[in-house]
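hey can u check if this looks right to u? its 713 residues, i copy pasted from the old doc so theres a chance i mangled smth
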Amino acid sequence: MGPRDLTTVLLLLLLVPSSRGQPPPLDYPWDDYDPMAALRLNSSTCRERGTCEGGMTFPDKNCHCDVLCHVMNDCCENAASVNISTTKGQLTCKQVPGLVKNAYGVLLVVHCSDEWTDDQTRNLCENASLAGDYSVDGDLILQTPVSDNTPANIMYQNMYCAYCNNVNEFKFWNPQYECMNNKTDVRHIPGSPDCKLVFTRPEFDAKFRQCDLMPAISNCLSDSDAELVVKCDTEPHYLVYDSIGHVYRNSFCAQCNGVSTEDMYCETLDLEPAPTDDPNARKASFRLLVDFNHYTAYKNDELFDEQITCGEDQIYDVVSSKCRYIYCPPHTKAMKGRCQTDNETLTATLDLNNNCTWVKLDSSEYKFIDDSRLFILSSQKVYNETEYMRNASDVFICHTDEHVCLENCGSRDVAFDFDDVEAYLSLAGLIISITALAVTFVAYTCLPQLLNTPGRILVCLVLSLLLAQLGFLVSGELAVRTDACRALAVLVHYFFMAAFCWMNVIAFDLWKTFSNKFATSGSGSAIKKLGYYSLYAWLTPLVIVCIAVTLDFGDFTIKYPSLKPRYGERACWISSRDSLIVFFLGPLALCKLFDITSFVFTAVHIARANKQGAVARRKKNTCSLLINIKLSLVMGLTWVFAFLANVTNVAPMWYLFIIFNTLQGLFIAVSFLCTRKVGRLVQEKYEVVTSSFSSRTSTANTASSSLSKDSQK
């Protein structure tokens, strides 16, 4: 038997069915593959995360290898022992902007030693957060962390915490402002919602201890085994994660809380998707249009409503958080915070030290290291004698923007976010409404009999509302702070304002019609009236939006910067609370006030007209109720829910606002398409189309028959 015959026999054996009628089972090396094996506690990867080998520490390890681990009782099993005078009660895990950009915090000394007796220093250390938690409103020196000069690099909440722990030599962490908008004026930085205060390392190799903001579970259940309770507290620190996201101090703490060994891992399983900047991940709610309460929540995220504007002869010092007077060489003057001259030739010949702007320092802000070197306390920077000027007791330095980041250097993608119920209600309502508006627009344009003056007014309302809702729906798919997002935000603003104005026109036209006892006017007068209506409904929103756009994108300084809409900054909509009130909610309130007034007078005239009719009373009351409901829906009186929801700020009221106003297109379609007149016109249109089609078909058949007979001849 040759090799070829042997191969044939083996193939036949594999292909022949077994006695049970099934092919024999095949064993593959990947059948027993466990995708979680590398994360289980008994894996080699997890064992390495419990030692200090490799020179790494938390969070690369599941425990700590630094000098503070013995104080915090979270050392790896082979961590070196170091004597530290700091106690556990003095330390806390705290977020410091700019240092850690994930879920971790920084371990800081925030309390004085027990032996310290000076109450004033203790208060400046321990109550620093009360002076302003990393915001422009607080004293910068109280917010700036410091590190001691020892290899341990122990961090203190501020220099007073270092003093009251008998540490007199330390390094300041560098404060600076990060701004997302590269058009931010340096004089407006402390009040700009695009900027935040952060801290950077005083030296490249400066270290800080990362820590979990949420402490691990280190207690056992009340009915746990006594031995497990002891081991949970005394055995080495090693973070253990279970399958549902809980984290424990070590495996014994997990075991005494009911976690089986098979469900213990050395890393989190990431059961929930990680946060993303993908605009599709944001929840878009129709509430975004009108909710000014949602803006106030960002005050705690270092966003500020009021801005500080320095004078023409001042410049804002972002490190010291104050305006400084500037001093210019002869033949120049201070203009917009810079030394400038109107004479270009003179500017070219003057030595302005590379366009340097000199500012005067307060005596408490600096000290001389020796006769030639100047030390600035806030920035921890040393100036040589060529880098500053001295005039008797006054000291001047060249102001630079070294502490200001004017590029897109922050990761503050603050987006409006709402709950899932609002998002789904908004999406479903908008899709239904847009579809209904499109059907209404097509029906009116295909049926010329409906295009009288009221019909043309309705078509304009339908078109503006259709474009506004469609633009809002699309805006949720765009990334913020892009040109497309800003442009769409402006268009959505315009078309919603246009829709409100056309609702005004409908309300006014109905009021006028019923008050004149159904009087009609000639075609020339109707065209003239429609022209006036169009001028009001299309141009009034244009004026409002143009003012807002000019304030937002104009290259000039305004007295109240909070009026800038900031289109597309946090969402593809108006991002400024004050601007939302002035340029959207304010005009909306005026429009709805007029609509309500018109509705009341129109309802009164309809009631009077019904009293003069000859219909039965029950039918009369029913018709009046339906007419009033239709009028209120077409006039957009449901937008009153926007103000009620803002005042109450409760979820049910916001749900009502979303339901009634996203479905406004459906209400309009039902009110104007579900009538006998429209049904009759559609039927007539259908009969004309089918008759025309039948006629063409008959003519074609006759011609075909004639050609066939001619060919047979």
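The two ends are 81 Å apart (CA to CA).
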